[in-house]
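Regression test case RT-17, inverse folding.

Input:
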C-alpha cells in the first residue's frame, strides 16, 4: 500500500476522505503510463531507483491493462541488464546491473503477482536480488524457518565488526513492497552496529500463508528462531513495519511486548482502515498508482470486493480487543493527508494504553508520511526511523527477559 500523493488545501482527515471517495474507478492504461513516467522522473514510490529512460522504454511496450503485458514489458528491460551483469568482468559493473534488473523485475510484478507473467517476474526479481547480494560485505544469509507445511523465508544480515550479541530490527514489508526492498533499505543500519531480519507480509512475496487476523504468528515464529541465534541479542529486537507491515508491527507491539525493545509502525492500519465505508472510498484513491483492490484481494486470498469488505473488520486491532493493553515502546510515523490509512488510525493507536508513545506526523504528508521532494521514503528512514531505532537499541535492558513462547 505504499504510494505517493499531493493534496492541496487544509491538512484535515475529512479532505483526504473526500479525495479518496471522489474516485469511482481505477486509472486507465493511458493514465497509468502517464503517472508512472511522472513518478520515475522524481524517484517517487513505487519507482524508486528506476531511471526515466528505462521506464519510458517499458511503458512504450504497454498497450493495455493486461497484467502479463505489464510484466513482459518491464521484464524485457530487466533482461537486458541481467545479460550485461553476467557478461561484465568488473564486479562493480556486474552488481550495478543486477540492481537495475532486480528493480525492473520487481516492478514487473507490482503491485502483486496476480498472473503467471507477474509470478515469473517476481521469481526473476528474487534471482536478480540474490545475484546482487553475492557482493555484500557483510554477507546476506537466506534463512528458512519451518512453518506449518511450508517455511518462512527471510534475509538476515549482521554487522561484521560489532560486538556480539548484536541488536536487530525485524523488518516487515508492506502490501506491495517485498523483503528485498526492506533489506536494501536496512543495509544502512549495519554501520550503526545493528543487524536486520527482513521478511514478507502475509500474502505477499514468499510468505507461507495468506493474511488473516491470526497471521501474526509468522512473526512469533521468527522471534522464536532469532532467540536461538547466539549472535543476536534477543533482548534488543525492534520490529519495523511499513503500511500493511505496520499493521503487523503494531499488533506485535501488543502481543509480543515482552520480547520487543520497540516497534516502529509506519502508516499502520488499526481500525477505521478496515471498516466498509472507508474501504469503499479508498479502493481507487489516486495516491495509489493502480490495482489496490486486486492487490488486496490477492493478499487475503479472496475473490471479490464484497467478500473482502465483509472480511476486513475482523482485522481491526480494536475489534481484537488489543488496544489499551501493555505494549513495547512505539514510534508512530505517518502523514495527515494519507488517503490509504486515515490519520484517525494513527491517533487511535497514539492515544490508547497507558505507556507514553512517540510520533512523527507530517502535516503535509501522504501515505508513509511522504511529501514530494522534501520527505521521500529514504529521507524519512534516514532522519526519523533509523535514529529512533539506534536510540532504543543502545539502551541495555535492566534484566534479561525470557521468551514468552
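Golden output:
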Amino acid at each position: 500500500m505504499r504510494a505517493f500523493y499531493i493534496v492541496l488545501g487544509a491538512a484535515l482527515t475529512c479532505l483526504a476522505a473526500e479525495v479518496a471517495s471522489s474516485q469511482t474507478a481505477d486509472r486507465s492504461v493511458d493514465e497509468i503510463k502517464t503517472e508512472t513516467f511522472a513518478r520515475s522522473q522524481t524517484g517517487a514510490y513505487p519507482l524508486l531507483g528506476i531511471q526515466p529512460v528505462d521506464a519510458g522504454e517499458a511503458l512504450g511496450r504497454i498497450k493495455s491493462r493486461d497484467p502479463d503485458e505489464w510484466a513482459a514489458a518491464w521484464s524485457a528491460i530487466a533482461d537486458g541488464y541481467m545479460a550485461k551483469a553476467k557478461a561484465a568482468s568488473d564486479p562493480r559493473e556486474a552488481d550495478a546491473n543486477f540492481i537495475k534488473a532486480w528493480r525492473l523485475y520487481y516492478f514487473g510484478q507490482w503491485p502483486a503477482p496476480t498472473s503467471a507473467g507477474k509470478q515469473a517476474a517476481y521469481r526473476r526479481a528474487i534471482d536478480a536480488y540474490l545475484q546482487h547480494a553475492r557482493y555484500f560485505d557483510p554477507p546476506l544469509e537466506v534463512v528458512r524457518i519451518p512453518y506449518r507445511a511450508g517455511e518462512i523465508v527471510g534475509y538476515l544480515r549482521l554487522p561484521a565488526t560489532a560486538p556480539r550479541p548484536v541488536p536487530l530490527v525485524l523488518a516487515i514489508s508492506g502490501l506491495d513492497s517485498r523483503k528485498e526492498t526492506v533489506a536494501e533499505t536496512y543495509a544502512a543500519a549495519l554501520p550503526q552496529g545493528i543487524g536486520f531480519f527482513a521478511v514478507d507480509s502475509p500474502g505477499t512475496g514468499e510468505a507461507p500463508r495468506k493474511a488473516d487476523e491470526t497471521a501474526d504468528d509468522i512473526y512469533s515464529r521468527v522471534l522464536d528462531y532469532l532467540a536461538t541465534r547466539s549472535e543476536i541479542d534477543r533482548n534488543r529486537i525492534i520490529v519495523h513495519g511499513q503500511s500493511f507491515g505496520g499493521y503487523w508491527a503494531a499488533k506485535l507491539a501488543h502481543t509480543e511486548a515482552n520480547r520487543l525493545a520497540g516497534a516502529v509502525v509506519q502508516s499502520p492500519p488499526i481500525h477505521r482502515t478496515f471498516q466498509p465505508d472507508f474501504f469503499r472510498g479508498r479502493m481507487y484513491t489516486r495516491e495509489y498508482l493502480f490495482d489496490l483492490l486486486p492487490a488486496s484481494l490477492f493478499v487475503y486470498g479472496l475473490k471479490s470486493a464484497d467478500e473482502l469488505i465483509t472480511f476486513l473488520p475482523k482485522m481491526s486491532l480494536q475489534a481484537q480487543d488489543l488496544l489499551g493493553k501493555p505494549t513495547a515502546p512505539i514510534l508512530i510515523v505517518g502523514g495527515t493527508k494519507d488517503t490509504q490509512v486515515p490519520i484517525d488510525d494513527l491517533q487511535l493507536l497514539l492515544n490508547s494504553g497507558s505507556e507514553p508513545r512517540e510520533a512523527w506526523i507530517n502535516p503535509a504528508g501522504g501515505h508513509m508520511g511522504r511529501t514530494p521532494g522534501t520527505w521521500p521514503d529514504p529521507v524519512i528512514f534516514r532522519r526519523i526511523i533509523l535514529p529512533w531505532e539506534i536510540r532504543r537499541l543502545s539502551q541495555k535492558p535492566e534484566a534479561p527477559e525470557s521468551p514468552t513462547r
